[in-house]
Design brief:
Two copies of one chain form a homodimer. Chain A is about 65% helix and about 5% strand. By secondary structure, chain A is mainly α. Chain A has three domains: about 130 residues, MgtE N-terminal domain-like (MgtE N-terminal fold, Alpha Horseshoe); about 120 residues, CBS-domain (Roll), CATH 3.10.580.10; about 180 residues, Orthogonal Bundle (Tetracycline Repressor, domain 2). The first copy, chain A, has a three-stranded mixed sheet with strand order 1-2-3. In chain A, strands 4-5-6 form a three-stranded mixed sheet. In chain A, helix 4 packs across helix 6, helix 5 crosses helix 7 and helix 15 packs across helix 16. The first copy, chain A, is elongated. The N and C termini of chain A lie far apart (about 65 Å). The interface between A and B is large, with 114 and 114 residues.
């Protein structure tokens, strides 16, 4: 697209100090692309370029910048300029920024905002993290039942310019209780003299401030919404969530699930911007827990020392058994965790899921067992009992792995834990232990070895 | 929310044959909730309830139903009813349905659509799967430069009711070349006599029919869009993508990545609706490949039979080493694969990434090594060389795992393969082989055993 070409050209204009031309180019650009350009600049030039922006564009671009750059700009501009930005930002963007800025900068920002804005920001800062309240904004169009379509339009014309969306308007009574919604499409499809009361939809899909942002995202997806009203526990409208923020939430939630499912504590920031120590810290806890668990597996193995001292060949099948078991189990747990995350699988489906996984496990296990059997009878002719031990262990491992892999995430959900913990790493460790005990027990029985 | 309560009540009304009341209730409901209700019904009642819906609601609900139910309804209604539905559906919904229906049903559907609709559907059916063309729809508002705001509004009032979105309007010349966009917000904020030409934005963010749907989703996320125009290679407007479809694409793409990263072929349909044989097929291919790879690892191990025959204790550390290596490697590969999927990490970042992972690997490896060392000197006093073998192998394994884990996904991207293949399962198998060779080589050297 055009933005990549532009970046280079803009940089040239800046370096050759053709400021007037640069300013003109910037005024035609999208705020997202301007922010991407500013991110490439050193700290001095950041402020130079930022000051070239018109007042309206300045706060739009500001909202798109990473918090370090926002902090740098705040520290480089006058109180007057700061006040203009802060009062122009949408409350959700202001709150996102303030949550990450150091205390002294927060103080200066709040000092330079109007008392209305300050009050609103303080209220919004108090909603719990990842709640509907924490991602909503306060800039919406509120109408009254008794207005006509014509009055609604002239109200939107007067007040709509600062609103995050004008396309869905919210109808409230004097106590701000939400009575209905009306879209601009509805307004456009009805005559000017029609009353809002007659065209508004009273079956409002809404969220409560304390609802989890994942539920909010799910509701957007299910109903194909553009915005969603958020009410307090007395059903009074306090804000709206818009679809652009939900798109970010969805991406963020998926990333968190990927990280959790690979045994990491989810990181707050993108990979390239996270320091080595933080990355190490996020990864260490689970590695440690899993390492200690696999030491226990090692301890179990020690019980069978006599067995693999007698037949060292037994050891060479360990990677195949544990890897296959781990993979088979992770496949199931991944499908179930994801199915629950998108709302397809519910804890009440547990019996259906187990039955399905048992059948899949049997089918897959038998086929893998067959391949193994063919290989083993060719490689180790005459050692039928050894072949049988390996093949039976493999089939049992696959079936057990699939069953564990589907039960644990659902069980976690039932006990209000995060199912994403029950993913590949933990499943692999558990299946390792189970499959090795099974394997050596079988070996001891079938090959009549000591141990177990 | 209210929908769960309603389902039960509706079922009661249906069972007690209070059809008039049921019809009234349905008329007040959201199409998504009605579809959820119909999905719960047997095939006979499906048609009974469906026929209760008003004509406008009927096609909205129809678009929300799964394809089996759509097929059942199509087979149960008259040509006249069918024709009304088909011509009322948005092209993208019609195309989604037709792609999954059996040929004879497709024929009947096309026979009952107007020739305009038929032509449009045939054109849309030809766009490649997962392209911008395959997710776009044809129902948008097209304006002309020479219109005034007032004319634009009256055009929208006349033609807007059937459009998927009216909030972004597209300005085209006589050849349908896209000249600009204007939002209803822009229209509302300008006086009635202003010309569209003067208020339209000519820097249009757009997609080409052949662009991948992932790129399209990325553009929506980056710019916070509500809709995106899709043009052909001659820059003529052919359709638009709306944000509700993009939300589905994002969820679908994330699910596919989860499945691929757990060594499965992505499934076309949700888990509970996928048959056992299909599930087994999707999982078998990779399990087989990985099983054969881990047989090779086993083969390598066989070379060191003498070593673990001499010191069987060596075997008990295998699970700890391979599990920790696998986990450490999957952590890195997961972060990199996800980072590339959301566009944060690019192949050109490869050196930065490797340097970061090397440091993280060293830090994490040293700490895990320390914990292990303390445990080993307590459990096996006097066996310093054994302790050293295990600890050094562990540290080296973690560092190597992190390096492999970050290089392989980026390499896959560079060679235009899917990075998601280079996830936990494959990384674990590779790291297993490397760490075991390392471990036994070290053991043979340090403990002066035969083999290697």
């Amino acid at each position: 697209m055009q933005e990549n070409v532009n970046l280079k050209k803009l940089m040239e204009l800046l370096e050759s100090r053709q400021f007037r031309l640069l300013k003109e180019k910037l005024s035609e650009m999208n705020e997202v692309d301007i922010a991407a350009f500013i991110e490439e600049l050193d700290s001095e030039r950041t402020v130079v370029v930022y000051r070239m922006l018109s007042k309206e564009l300045a706060s739009d671009v500001f909202a798109c910048l990473p918090v370090e750059t926002q902090e740098h700009i705040i520290n480089s501009i006058t109180d007057y300029e700061l006040s203009a930005i802060v009062n122009d930002l949408f409350v959700d963007d202001a709150v996102d920024m303030l949550e990450e800025l150091p205390a002294n900068v927060v103080k200066r920002v709040l000092k330079n905002s109007t008392s209305d804005t300050r009050q609103l920001i303080n209220q919004f800062l108090q909603y719990p993290e990842n709640s509907a309240g924490s991602i909503m904004t306060a800039e919406y169009v509120g109408l009254k039942k008794a207005m006509t379509v014509k009055e609604a339009f002239s109200y939107i014309r007067r007040h709509g310019v600062d609103k995050e969306t004008i396309y869905t308007c919210y109808v409230m009574d004097a106590k701000r209780t939400l009575e209905g919604v009306v879209t601009v499409k509805d307004l456009l499809m009805h005559p000017y003299e029609e009353m809002i009361e007659n065209i508004m939809d009273t079956h409002v899909i809404k969220a409560i401030t304390t609802d989890d942002q994942e539920e909010v995202a799910e509701r957007f997806r299910k109903y194909g919404l553009l915005s969603l009203p958020v009410v307090d526990h007395e059903d009074r409208l306090v804000g709206i969530v818009t679809v652009d923020d939900v798109v970010d939430v969805m991406e963020q939630e998926a990333t968190e699930d990927f990280e959790k499912m690979a045994a990491m504590i989810p990181s707050e920031r993108p990979y390239l911007k996270t320091g080595v120590v933080t990355l190490a810290k996020n990864r260490l806890a689970w590695l440690l827990i899993l390492m200690i668990s696999s030491m226990i597996t090692g301890g179990i193995l020690a019980k069978y020392e006599a067995a693999f001292a007698a037949i060292p060949l037994l050891v060479t099948f360990i990677p195949m058994l544990t890897d296959t078991g781990g993979n088979a189990g992770s496949q199931s747990s991944t499908m179930i965790i994801r199915g629950m995350a998108v709302g397809e699988i519910k804890p009440s489906d547990i019996l259906r899921v187990i039955w399905k996984e048992l059948q899949v496990g049997l089918l897959v296990g038998m086929l893998l067992g067959l391949v193994n059997y063919l290989r083993l009878v060719i490689l180790y002719p005459g050692q039928e009992l050894l072949c049988l031990t390996v093949v039976l262990s493999l089939i049992a491992t696959v079936i057990i792995a699939k069953t564990i892999g589907c039960i644990l995430p659902i069980a976690a959900q039932i006990f209000h834990m995060d199912p994403a913990i029950m993913a590949a790493p933990l499943i692999t460790t558990i299946v390792d232990a189970v499959s090795l005990v099974l394997y050596f027990q079988l070996a001891c029985r079938l090959l009549q070895l000591n141990g177990g």
